[in-house]
Amino acid sequence: MVSPAAQYDIQYTPLLPSQLLLGSPFQPGTPSAAFSNPQIAFPTSPTMSAGAFTPTDQYIPYQSYMDLASFGDLTAAAAAAASPQVVQASRTVYLGNVPSETTAEELLSHVHSGPVESVRMLPEKNCAFISFLDIASASHFHSDAILRKLSIRGQDIKVGWGKPSTVPMNVLMAVHQSNASRNVYLGNLPEDITEEEIREDLGRFGSIDTVKLVREKPIGFVHLLSISSAIKAVQQLPQEPKWANRKVFYGKDRCAYVSKTQQQNAAQFLGISPGYEHLVAGADRDMISNALAQQSAAAAAVATTAGGMANLGNRTVYLGSIHPETTIEEICNVVRGGLLHQIRYIPDKHICFVTFVDPTVAAQFFAMSNVQGLMIHNRRLKIGWGKHSGPLPTAIALAVTAGASRNVYIGNIDESWTEERLRQDFSEYGEIELVNTLREKSCAFVNFTNIANAIKAIEGIKQKEEYRNFKINFGKDRCGNAPRPMNMNAGHHSHHNGASNGNAPVAGESYKEVVVSVMICC
């Protein structure tokens, strides 16, 4: 008889709790297990010296600039074991093996960790250097790019560190006094202005990343490749007659946007209770970046410890030994922490594959489930890694950024629209996990087993005559909710709204604290 693991390419590795985060920054005395490996944390990075491209064997381990105050002796122990060659942290991330035809806009679309000070593209060397305003943002991007196995145009990107440098004084002053960024805001624009015209006028101050026109306002945003260039534009453009009556100032750097998912991840990592994730949005950017960077590093350690280097960036978690009476709805009721890309349940094999949008969330769910146990119908599930998911498809990533999920919302419906009718109408677009009607709010939700089918359903159902008067949009994936206190009988009963307690840290209990408690016990 062929085992499920053999048939479905499962990398199932039972772990003792003390083995779970071996090599993570939270495991005292073992950071070298994961972070001294250049394939994981810090590959050799080229640096620029006097305009020449020269390689160097010295690079900066991640631990050297972790916020020691935030994690006390635990992180200090990891930092103490770092390379003694470390002398200074860097705010510049090196990217190698970049396709020569890659544009700055394409490259920076992968950066969501903090304000960028400048970008230097070297297509002839197939590399680029991204300098952030602060080290925390750089460390976040560095660790996240490694975890996600950053790829551009089908090529895997090498991630390392650039030469340490300081932010130019004029840039620091402009940031402090005027909230300067590389994004130039243009207001009160003429109706007939074109993107080409804006590019021509602002391109004189430096290379341009993106131009966005919002004609109905009418306003525009121009991201340049450096804050220095933006400062020149803001200072000099209003002096020109053509722009004298226009508003010219700074907008927010698109690379510094903190998404709701990032807020939730940082909040959970820091131990902020569910429901208060919004407080993170107003928190110090360094604190958020440090939390997310350390979370990515820990996720990389979890993924590679359990599945080897090839498992880095995997988004699929394997669930085994599932009770025969379990439904896919009950499985989704205990999965918490991040949006699902797709879920595949194979009842006759008693196994399930849960693929998250974010590999960080997948590693965190894997870790928590191993430490605390995942129970459905009083049976503890086996937790492992499924076959590597690969990177999130670009089309899905863009859709998720725009608000897509596997949940479809239908508004303004009356009582004649039953769950059975909705299930029948929507089932032509793919497998459905749950249909939930809320009569008191005249709405319903149809949860598919993957995001792609939800996208197809919204596009298709809007074309049907009987649905044209309804509000059709994406709803919230309940699996993306913050983890709830453990309930050993979670999943035993079906809930129409999916409100079943999952197995995860209790309110106010951080990812770090769970790991620390495991280490103390073991």
Automatic annotation (TrEMBL):
Gene3D superfamilies in the record: 3.30.70.330
Keyword Ribonucleoprotein in annotation: no
Domain RRM: from-to ranges: 91-164, 182-263, 315-388, 406-477
InterPro entries linked to this entry: Cwc2/Slt11, Nucleotide-bd_a/b_plait_sf, RBD_domain_sf, RNA-binding_domain_put, RRM_dom
SUPFAM superfamilies with a match to the protein in the record: RNA-binding domain, RBD
Domain of life: Eukaryota
GO CC annotation terms, alphabetical: cytoplasmic stress granule
Entry keyword set: Repeat, RNA-binding
Annotated stretches, region: Disordered: 483-504
GO BP term (any one): mRNA splicing, via spliceosome
GO MF annotation list: mRNA binding; poly(U) RNA binding
A Pfam family assignment: RRM_1
Name recorded for this polypeptide: RRM domain-containing protein
Species annotation: Lipomyces starkeyi NRRL Y-11557
